[in-house]
Every structure is written in C-alpha cells, then in structure tokens.
C-alpha cells in the first residue's frame, strides 16, 4: 500500500469553494475512477488555515498513474473544475507526497 498525501493551499477566502467542489463534484469522479480516499482534513491550528489536506490509498504507483491520469483527462471533470474557477482561481498551490507504511504502522 502507498498513501498519497495532498495539500491544497487555497487563495484567501476560497477554501469554502474548494470544500464545496470536493463534496459535490470531485468525490463523484474519484468514485468513477476507483480512487480510494482515506480522509480529508482542514487545519484547525497551524500556519495556514486556507488549506485542505487529504490522503489517498494506492496499491502501487502504477495504479496511481493510471487512475489519476484518467481522472485528470476526463473532459467532464475539466469542464466542471473550470466552471468553479470561472470567477477566480481556488487553489494557489498543491503539495503531494507518497508515503509507505513502516512495519509497525497500524495502517498497512
């Protein structure tokens, strides 16, 4: 198992728009492409309260490449994402890391 941690740093005041897009649109596309989420978090206390952090579970990097690329190339996704940003951008920057569990991790 590989866990991908993604952090979306939003433009000021745009976190609610990102949360809305995930709950009403993005998660449907994740389901369509078999992208498995572990969870989503916003920052309660920390240096950036305009961020969404989430974890995805992959069997392999090959699975991630195939499913993520198909999702990103989906014309319906591209159109819906563009519509949510017609007024102004939502995300300023994205960070991602690929994590692998240790032998003593509860999640493996």
UniProtKB/TrEMBL annotation:
<dbReference type="Pfam" id="PF07978">
    <property type="entry name" value="NIPSNAP"/>
</dbReference>
<protein>
    <submittedName>
        <fullName>NIPSNAP protein</fullName>
    </submittedName>
</protein>
<dbReference type="InterPro" id="IPR012577">
    <property type="entry name" value="NIPSNAP"/>
</dbReference>
<dbReference type="InterPro" id="IPR011008">
    <property type="entry name" value="Dimeric_a/b-barrel"/>
</dbReference>
<feature type="domain" description="NIPSNAP">
    <location>
        <begin position="3"/>
        <end position="105"/>
    </location>
</feature>
